Amino acid sequence: xxxIAGQYKGRKFIPPAKNWPTRPTTDFxxxxxxxxxxxxxxxxxxxMLDLFGGTGSHGYEFISRGCQDATYxxxxxxxxxxxxxxxxxxxxxxxxxxxxxxxxxxxxxNSKQFDYIFAGPPYPLPQLKTLPDLVFRYNTLAEGGLFVxxxxxxxxxxxxxxxxxxxHYGEAIFSFFK
Length: 178
What we know:
Blueprint: H1 27-37, E1 47-51, H2 57-64, E2 69-74, H3 77-90, E3 96-100, H4 103-109, E4 114-119, H5 131-137, E5 141-151, E6 163-169, E7 172-177
Parallel strand pairs: 1-2, 1-4, 2-3, 4-5
Antiparallel strand pairs: 5-7, 6-7
């Protein structure tokens, strides 16, 4: 895995993911998504949230592009430890808040709003279809913000009231909500 652009462009990190319950976003899909985000987001002014953060790749990419306020949430202790260690190695611990929590509990009890939210849950997660409703019910997305949900073709969010568009990158689909 690598960071695509910004201050840490080209930096590779290799998570010890042999027994991790993660499905990292491929570099191909991540690059496609960030090409879109480059035209929609001012990274330096964005407060971002990465749900089901896994390896932390999304947050590193944002920080590399100038984001000063990122929050990473995952419930898997090894992922959280890896992201904390990588943040220290990159010297970005002051820019990323690493939270070990169930995402659904985090959304329920969080009081902060975010300009950009990314969720990359396991595709077969039974509650995946509820994520957009929860993000908006708990007022997690700031006014004018953008929520991107990565999912497979087994889910369809085109009829959701806040749905804007979707993009396909291989098996990964990114649905955009405002």
